[in-house]
Amino acid sequence: MSNFIFLGKPDWNDPLYRMYFETLVLELRKRNYQVDLVEPEHGLFIPDCPDKTTIVNFFYKDIDSIKLLKQVSNKRILKLCFTSDIESYKAYAEAYTVADAFLCPSPLHKKMLDHVFALPSYLLREAIDPIVAANPGSTLIRNYAKKIVWFGFPESYRRSMPILEPIISEALAKCNIDSFSVISGYGLKKDLPAEFIFLEYQSHMLMSELGKFNYALLSHLPLDAHINTFIKSPNKAISAIMSGAIPIASATPNYEEMLRSVGLERYLFDSPRTLLNIFGHLSRDGEASYQEEINIAQVSIQNHYSSENQCVEYLNIIDDLNKKILQDDFFKTKVSLKFFEEPEEEIKLRFYYRQQFKKLKKFFSKMFSK
Fold it and tell me: Of 243, 273, 304, which closes a domain?
């Protein structure tokens, strides 16, 4: 039997902490495993148990935990790195030096990391957010209204939503939707159109706020032209469904996979105009289909994304890694990696030079042709 250490500072405001560490700790304890939550500043004590493997879990962006793990050399330890955003490969370089495996929220995240890091990687989906799981919206038979909400961090809104604002405003003007609200950090309020309703994000209030809406608009359209935005995990769609809001989501890979799996594919949009068509559908027959669609989707989400299922998958990963430990080359020395970096200014400067060269070439060709 293994011992489990979850290394890092508890942060209930961090969705990743809630949907991985919080859910796994509770489920492992239910199964009578030895589980400890350890903050990096308190140091790391590994019990000397030759017949047990200690599993240390940490997040890829937790620099303090990574620094602590660099001081540990014990072959009875498995160090599992929980991954998320892939803004750059360099962001994973430090985690790679100490990790024995990557745990990834989607097949696309796994594939991207597999291309670069010679490390075992596994798919471990985020569980239903405990904030939502504690108060499932399935118990509600709410009054129908075409009230739509977006929720998330301000930077997520800026990366995916501005291009949709004119369409949302048009739908409001045509009364295709009754209202559009944004739940986010206060810094975003000043950037929103006047007709949008702003609600300040508070994690302990998220469930009660989401419970006021029948639909959630979720976009991963990569307005920042970054693949990380395009492949974001569908965790907000899970939270929306469990709070009783049907997701109207961009047809980006992970949202599309999820909505198709729960029978909500008609709520996928691949352009601003497609989104307007969906809003039009809500005004025509949304009320007739809402309750049945949300009930079916909630049952499917509970079956596939429960914390119980997540824990079973996690323990299966541990079993597989325990077999790999027996192989002679499992703890082999890792090669150092070099990453491609090209400053944006350099790209712009090169483009400028090419542009000016073309102008000069055109000028001289005209001059010599006279």
Answer: 304
Q: Are β-strands 197-200 and 179-184 bridged in parallel, bridged antiparallel, or unpaired?
A: parallel
Quickly list DSSP for 56-85: EEEETT-HHHHHHHTT---TTEEEEEEP--
Note whether residue 121 is domain-resident.
yes
- Residue 315's domain comprises 3-127+307-325
pLDDT in tens, 135-168: 555 445 567 889 999 999 999 999 999 999 999 9
pLDDT-based confidence at 287, cuts 50/70/90? confident
Element spanning 300, H or E: helix 272-304
Same domain, residue pair 137 and 275: yes
- Backbone φ, ψ for residue 225 (5° rounding): 55, 35
pLDDT of 114 strictly over 90: yes
Task: For residue 176, give both structure tokens.
Answer: 């295709």
- What pTM was estimated for this model as a whole? 0.86
* C-alpha pair distances (Å), 200 with each of 47, 162, 183, 203: 45, 19, 6, 10
* Residues 61 and 7 reside in one and the same domain: yes
